Amino acid sequence: MSTTADDGAPLGLMPGQEVPFDDRGLAYGDGVFETVLVRNGFPVLWDYHLARLARGAEVLGFPAPRQADLERPLAKAPKGLAVLKLMVTRGSGGRGYLAPDPPKPRLRWQLLPFAPTPNRWWEGVRVRHCRLRLGIQPVLAGIKHLNRLENVLARREWQDPDTAEGLLCDSEGRLVEATGMNLFWQRGGRLETPRLDHCGVAGTLREALKGRVALHEVAVGPEVLNDAEALWLGNSVQGLWPVTRLDDPDGRAQHRWSLGPPHRWLQAEAQALLGYPVPEVRDH
Question: Which Pfam families match (predicted)?
Answer without folding.
Answer: Aminotran_4
